[in-house]
Design brief:
Length: 120
């Protein structure tokens, strides 16, 4: 019975894999294995590439590394934030009026360029 726990845990967690991001004029879609998580961009105030954004973070609720880093975190630099990440060194920080979100696209420069294009 116990030998099946790791397999069950890995199978269940695999549904939360972050496969990528889609930026539209109003929404950022975080592509998961079976569904997309939706982030409304209408209140986006600023964004920045920051390789060290997640350093020193404490997970308050979520997954800290099994197939992704997703959930709610806190650190001195960002305060409370939500992460949809796979590689913290590729962090892009999205600042909204009442929240902060960290994503880690494969190409942060291209992702920021897409955000810049929709803001224009």
């Amino acid at each position: 019975m116990i030998s099946g726990v790791p397999l069950l845990l890995a199978t269940g967690s695999s549904f939360f894999i972050i496969r990528g991001y889609i930026v539209t004029k109003e929404t950022l879609f975080v592509q998961r294995f079976v569904w997309n998580s939706r982030i409304d961009l209408s209140d986006l105030k600023s964004y920045e590439i920051d390789r060290e954004a997640m350093k020193g973070s404490i997970r308050t609720f979520g997954n800290g590394g099994l197939f992704c880093i997703a959930g709610y975190f806190h650190n001195k630099k960002l305060g409370h934030y939500r992460a949809f990440a796979t590689n913290p060194e590729l962090s892009v920080v999205l600042h909204f009026s009442n929240r902060t979100v960290v994503v880690t696209p494969d190409n942060p420069q291209q992702f920021v360029a897409a955000l810049r294009d929709i803001a224009a």
